[in-house]
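Sample pair:
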Amino acid sequence: MKIAISGKGGVGKTTIMALLANHLKNDGHEVLIIDADPSPHMAQTIGVKDPGRIIPIAEMKEMLVERSGKTPGSPFYNINPQVDDLLARYMVEAEGIKLMVLGAIQEGEGGCACAENTVLKRLLTKLLLAPKQYVLLDMEAGVEHLGRGTIAGVDLLLVVVIPSQSSVRTALKIKKLARDVRIKRVGFVGNLVADPADEEFLRQGLSEPPLACFPDLQAIRHNERAGQPIATVADQLTTATQTLLRNITGA
């Protein structure tokens, strides 16, 4: 199953995806996480040793241009670049969870990064084709990636939302764009939910109940500040994680 996650910046999508990955791994499933955020920090969250050593593939500009076949001064590049060797070269593993830190190409005043993006998208497609794994895709905050149709092949998009008006507005916009690019299923996940009033606020604002609601725990913040993996506090969130997984799989 291929599951992507998105939401407004700072809502805790990386934490929730790491909790889901940890639970799936403990249930005996093979799990691959693709960190496609421009500021990736999934490696620390799942317990990769020395996460600072990992360079996102999107930042390997020379390698990406070379792999695309683009030559200086030429507008032409290979639209079907070879990426199979990159899967083994840049994949890491921690506590039984595989991780590929993809990152995201930034297209600003420097001009179009079409050749580099072609390599990244080809690599992402290859990763999403893994038939026997749970593939979890941690996307950049916001909705821009949906506008580009980058993740149209996933089975489910989880949209993380906290009890605030701005987060609810962003979540609804993400759902609309997800439908536009024909993502099969879209579901909301509540986070930083302190009480039943927060749950009701989300249900009313989203016009549907979230698949699960994760509590606002001080332990999560302390854990992140200490640089500890999410598995250290996962037991405190077992109920919410199990509820989410049950609603995802229908089991």
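The chain has ten helices and eight strands.
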